[in-house]
Amino acid sequence: MDFLTILQILDSSVRLATPLLLACLAGLYSERAGIFDIGLEGKMLAAAFLSAAVAAVTGSVWLGLLAGIAASMVLSGLHGLASITFRGNQLISGVAINFLASGLTVLVAQDWFAQGGRTPSLGGDARFTGLTLPFADALAGVPVIGPVYAELISGHSILVYLAVAAVPATWWVLYRTRFGLRLRAVGENPAAVDTAGISVVGLRFAAVAICGLLCGIAGAYLSTALQAGFVKEMTAGRGFIALAALIFAKWRPWQAMWACLLFGVLQAIALRYQNIRLGEITIPVQVMDALPYVLTVVILAGFVGKAIAPRAGGEPYVKER
Amino acid sequence: MPKWAEVILVPLISLLLAAILSALVILAIGEDPVAAVKMMVEGALGSTYAWGYTLYYATNFMFTGLAVAVAFHARMFNIGGEGQAMIGGLGVALACLYVPWPHWSLGLLGAILAGGLFGAGWALIPAWLQAKRGSHVVITTIMFNFIAASALNYILVNLLKPKGSQDPASARFPEAVHLPTLHELLAPLGINFSKAAPANVSLLVAVAACVLVWALIWRTRLGYEIRAYGQSEPGARYAGISGVRIILISMVISGALAGCMAINNVMGEAERLVLNATEGAGFIGIAVALMGRSHPFGVFLAAILFGFLYQGGAELALWTKIPREMITVIQALVILFTGALDNMVRAPLERIFLAARRGRG
């Protein structure tokens, strides 16, 4: 394997890791506030569809992005309504949201575009294109650094850079702001937060809204940047890989980025090679597909450092009377 | 709230809400909901052929619904029915392909054993991780669904696929393990049931499973322990019930039930193991268990309802502009209203009954 191939794989890893990272950070906000969210997949799917649909109709990818965020936030609101207001089971609500998105996207796509559940192909301004960072062309000739800068760092869509910027931003919000402190507290001990006179319901709805926002961007990235248009079930389990990455990272932002990059590399390798030969042994592509899930189970099992979820996660908060 | 309201009224109102929203969705895509319902009834209940498909789907959902319901009683949420049914399919396929069964009845027993064992085994790992290591069973069972799909893909493509075949599927099962369809079962009774429909003897096994699960949950000591643990973990511990044991046993039973679904779809219908043989039935089990309030009789009714929706939905997709995904939407709404938004329906009802009682007293 030569230098350029490695670079291409890493480049593709970054592209594939971006939706995982956005969804993973989305889940981080929600779960740190004590709201389990296995509906990341559905929210991404709904956002992917609506952003592609609006971008196709209006020709503006930015309007598409807004529409995608709106779709995802509506589903987030539903999750909040079920799990915060009506104190329902958060896991069941997540399952329902996944199915709702999976069914409705195809239903509406078929009704609007009649192309078998997909949107028309996007092109031109209806799609996010790669940004060429300054000096990328000038530096391309410099050995090692040049290709790394031009191929790997430059040339992605703006959403990729946004996702990377969201990592320190999330760290700062969680660990350096009052809101972040309260958010983490409400996921560990909501009664204490309530005693301090801060609204548990308000905080949790805020967390769920941020989750919807980030999932919306992740979905829009899938259909308007990574691919050109929506196809049925295009999230293909990415919401669950993001959930896996979140556990892998033990609910921390920087580690979430590394986990998503790792899973991105696995996806990129699986995409490029069908079977990998390491000397005598051949690793089948299915092993690469299953690896993120296997790693997550191993981490969850506590064999490689224990992953402890926020303590109040999954429990509806009932104020004492 | 009186018992009848709890058991009948709450699910009915939830179902009604889901139905109203589904009708609105159909209206929104420019179709007529009344005509759609008529077509569904005709297509799913209008002939023995239609019934044959409805009951075939219902058989699948009875197994997966019971699987979710048993785990619910121990307050475990087994989302892994899909993966357990896939691996159960592998067990059934191996039993049918590699054991020379003299008669289908023995083959069926062997297949139930193999499918149950494989499904139980696939549920045992997440159960053990939950019981011993505290890993959340919901997350691990989701992960195990994906791992099962990858594993099955590998096994079908690299190991079970006959030489020279392009299809990622196992060889056809021998004629000896062909399960009698309802057509063959009912013919001696003088009933002419459709020959083309896939409903088969597994339906009777599923109904028997409903009865057995009922007996297990409400008529045995183990069932009592499972329910006690589900109601209150500290209470159960105080009564000397081992949490580890209950988690392991309830998940193993759950996985075995999901695995047994394969006798219907793999052995009864396809008669070979194909990719994605489960077609999401494991997930529909969640809706069925919620709808049926985790009671085997409720699961039985809910499974038939979903069998009706599945077959009716397929007919709609065939004759109208309403795509098959409409069923997924209905399924989502049922899960939403009977599961997640349960309190939204229940709380106002409780208030009404309370007011009525006060008015009388």
TrEMBL record, chain A:
Main location: membrane
GO cellular component: plasma membrane
Localization, UniProt: Cell membrane
Presence of the UniProt keyword Ribosomal protein in the record: no
One GO MF term attached to the UniProt entry: transmembrane transporter activity
Residue ranges of the TM segments: 12-29, 49-71, 91-114, 158-175, 196-222, 256-274, 290-309
Domain of life per record: Bacteria
Protein name: ABC transporter permease
Native source organism of the sequence: Seohaeicola zhoushanensis
Upper classification of the organism: Bacteria, Pseudomonadati, Pseudomonadota, Alphaproteobacteria, Rhodobacterales
